[in-house]
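cron nightly-structures :: item 1 of 1
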Amino acid sequence: MWRQVPADTRQVVAVYGDDRDSPDGVVVLYEKQGETWKRTGSWPAHNGKLGWTTDHQMDDERSPVGVFTLTDAGGVLADPGSRLKYRQDDHAFASTIYWDEAHEHDFDYVIAIDYNRIKGTPPYDWSRPLGVEKGGGIWLHLDHGDGTSGCVTVPESGMRSLLRTLDPARHPVVVMGDKDRLKR
C-alpha cells in the first residue's frame, strides 16, 4: 500500500483493523519530517460493521481498502481550526430522525475520504463518479462505540487533532484496510 502513496504526501492517516471481518481498528497519524516518517497521533477506531473490502458496494457495511486523498471537512459544529476546507451546516450533517442517541453526534465533525466523490465539494455532496452502486459518503467522523456502514470513526479528541493538523499543502492521504492487506 505504501507504494500507492503519492510522492508529495507528507501526512498519512493509517487506518487498520486486525482482520478483514473486524469492525474494530486503530487510526494512526504519520507525518514526514525530513526523510523520516514520525508517528504523531493514535486513536482507537471503528470501521465497517462487516470489516473491509477491496470491492466496496453501496450498503455492504464494509469499509473500502485503499489509499485515498483527504481534501474536505465539515460538520454540525463550528470549525475547530481545520486546515482542510471546512463547511459547517447543521442541516446537511444532522443525524436523521430514525437514529438513536448513540449516533446523534456522529457528524459533529467529519473529514471526507475521497472515495467515489468529487474533491473540493462539500462532504455531503452525493455526486458519485464511479456510480451510485459503488457507494460513497465515506468519512472519518465521531465515534459512537461500534461498527459503521463504511465510514471510520474516531474519538472527538482525535477528530479535533486531525482537523487541526491535516494540511492541504502536505497532501494528506488515508491508507486504510485490514493489517494483512496493508502489508502487501
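cron nightly-structures :: done
Residues 156-165 form the longest helix (10 residues).
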